[in-house]
Amino acid sequence: MMAHSLAIPRWTQVVKEHPDALAAIACGILLFCGWLSLYWGWLGLGLLLLFAAYVIGGYESAREGLTTLWKERELDVDLLMIVAALGAAGLGLWRREYYLIVDGAVLILIFAISGALEGYAMQRTERDIRSLMSLSADTARVLLHGQEQMIPVAKLQVGDRILVKPGELIPTDSIIVEGYTTLNEAAITGESLPVEKTIGDEVFAGTLNGYGALQLRVHQPPESSLIQRVIQLVKQAQTEAPPSQLFIERFERGYARVIVVCGILLAILPPLIWGWNWEITIYRALIFLVVASPCALMAAIMPTLLSGIANGARQGILFKSGAQLEMMGKVRAIAFDKTGTLTTGKLQVVAVIPADGVTQEEVLQVAAALEAYSEHPIGEAIVQAGNEPHRRRERREEKIENVLSHPGLGISGEIDNQEVRVGKATFVCEERPLCQRVLGKSSQRLEAEGKTVVWVARENQVLGIVAVADTVRSQAFQIVSYLKHLGVEQIVMLTGDNERTARHIAQDIGIDRVYAGLLPEDKVNVIRDLQKQYQTVAMVGDGINDAPALAQASVGIAMGAAGSDVALETADIVLMADRLDKLVAAIRLGRRSQSIIKQNIVFALGFIVLLLIANFVGNITLPLGVIGHEGSTVIVTLSGLRLLRN
């Protein structure tokens, strides 16, 4: 008794999750039993079983077809299939050729099986979204008055302190206030290598904590977390039809009307004009309705694009709609922002040139000692370089006093009662007439390369110069080469930086054209000019000032890890990993999707023509027509699912 009671909810769940498959199975069993009954001469039972097969297998298609006809005044392929099946049944009853009723039931069965297979195929594209949703923790361990308390994540508020132990998921986007660890951010960025995190770093919901316990401060509502935005955007992308799909749907509506009219004419005119046999003519007209239906053509696009969206989400490439995946396959020109996109966006010491008799370590240590009192990004870069283990030298405690900041010039102070200046040449060499003769040529060379040169002097001696620059991403040159290999005709750089620096970087990585000194509206104008010449133009950026250009571009692409919220919301595609090679992967996905869609359309149209020819020469029966029609639909659907593979 208990086993029976437990089986009920289990079967209920199966029916709820797989209604199409169960309907197809039931239809098949009833069809076989009905055919067997007719074969044994049990006419009444056979017809009853076949009628049940018609109802169970064709109910959903009939309901959808009639709903579309009633509400939208449009014919669709579901209704065409039902009309063809009922026509075969009616013709069989009229002529007492009951095999025609079986033929109609076979049509219903194969159509039901096809629908179940297509439903299963579509479910595969949703698995990545479900896996993302499973990474969202349901509860969080909140610290209240020194005590731990588990509460639902949805009830977290900005400012709450939460504790995350090793091996646990980060429950919501937060800032680390205590602890050090490594996080697996594969769910967000697509990168499998752990990332080190410490106090002050931001961590994202759905990422997996490594070996260290963390105390976090919630800094935004849980519903606004990055992973929740990813889930919502991918769901939205899967529901929005791209232009090609909208065109096919409009074509299908008109095409279905033409097929119905042609089917009626084929059933009536030949007997009236040429005296053809009515039964054979009607039978051929029914086959025509089946084989001419555009099911395969309808399945040529969306399965492919949905598979591409799911594949991209798995790699950390977030397409906000199928239209953008489709557009990526057509990109002919790409515009890059410089800072934070082609470059790291962080200043680093790239060269240290000491004067005669001075070491690099001494130059850096003196400069870093003063710059430690500065909050300027250049000073932070020098301090960071001075603290690197291979550059640090043992020294006694220094006495630093009278430190003064000189805005726009540099910083001065006394180290062990010796005057020290760090900054621009005009500031450092102000009271040292021979200063610039020492390292003047080296300074000019570094500045010509777009680097910022910081001079370091102690008393009357120039110690050396330090070159600071926003370094180019290590992948940039290789990525630009890959993009050109993929057929991108023009690659340009848009930046608000000075032209000298921009051109030096562009030359290093192979950029075709440089537009420097641009304001946000200037970037928009450049994108418009590129669109006039190349039609489909992508823009890659990460900052607020890039948002207008991202919106103007045919495809706006934001660097997700480093990008501003405005850029992420404006862009059409988000590269969740802060890596440019994801751009190459996105374009490859777009190119592959276009190739597969074209293959599917050619195959679908070609197979329809082949079946029509076979019908007109009289070499095809209704079941064979159904198998060919539905088989081509399944093949096209499975072809689109190829994009699920990396």
Describe the 3D structure.
- The structure is a single chain.
- With 646 residues, the protein is α+β, with helices and mostly antiparallel strands.
- The protein folds into four domains: 11-130 and 240-303 and 596-642, no CATH class; 139-223, Calcium-transporting ATPase, cytoplasmic transduction domain A (Distorted Sandwich); 317-342 and 473-578, HAD superfamily/HAD-like (Rossmann fold), CATH 3.40.50.1000; 345-471, Calcium-transporting ATPase, cytoplasmic domain N, CATH 3.40.1110.10.
- Helix content is 56%, strand content 18%.
- It is built from 24 helices and 22 strands.
- The strands form four sheets. Strands 10-22-21-20-11-18-19 form a seven-stranded mixed sheet, with helices on both faces.
- A hairpin with a 2-residue loop joins strand 14 and strand 15.
- Helix 2 runs antiparallel to helix 5 (99-134) and helix 5 runs parallel beside helix 11 (302-315).
